[in-house]
Amino acid sequence: MIAAVGRLRDGPEAALSSDYIARAAAAGRQLGFRSVDLVEVEAKPNGDARAEAGALFRATPDDARKILLDERGAEWTSRQLAEKLARWRDDGQACVTFWIGGADGVSQSVKDQADEKLAFGRQTWPHRLVRVMIAEQIYRAVTILCATPYHRD
Predict the structure, then answer these.
(1) Which end of the chain has less Cβ packing within 10 Å, N or C?
(2) Within 10 A of 60 (CB to CB), how many other CB atoms are there?
(3) CATH 3.40.50.2000 fits 2-146, yes or no
(4) What residue ranges do the domains of the chain occupy?
(5) Please, are residues 10 and 105 in contact by the beta-carbon 8 Å criterion?
(6) Distances (CA, A) of 48 to 115, 119, 128, 140
(7) Per residue in 29-76, pLDDT tens?
(8) Residue 141 in contact with residue 78, Cβ under 8 Å?
(9) Where do the DSSP E strands lie in the chain?
(10) Whole-angstrom Cα distance, residue 9 to residue 117?
(11) What pLDDT is stored for residue 103 in this prediction?
């Protein structure tokens, strides 16, 4: 699951995110992944990170493994992400949720609640683009586990 602060209007980012999520869900079923979903929670106009944190927490299943997308996080290769998803699935992890904060970042409580932090490099990326990037990486991880030719080392 991807839980993101803010809602995307129609546009290329929304279309790409939806496409990769649908592809990942379809391919993932044969690997025992239940679903891949995007849940958007309301961004607060004043950037109230505490209120946004509460919305992220409510959107996340209690038993989920929580991965915060943060430029200060670890940098995983696509294969490492695939291996982690497979290991969590095999260990009985019911859900993995990737958190994307709002434009003003996330509260300390979100950072504290995250099981892991993942970075797409040290740059700061637009939140709309981060949705596409994590959706594509989930799809890529699933194709790696399916041994399809999509990913090339």
Answers:
(1) C
(2) 19
(3) no
(4) 2-146
(5) no
(6) 23, 23, 19, 33
(7) 999 898 899 999 988 877 788 899 999 999 999 999 999 999 999 999
(8) yes
(9) 2-5, 38-41, 64-74, 95-100, 116-118
(10) 27
(11) 84
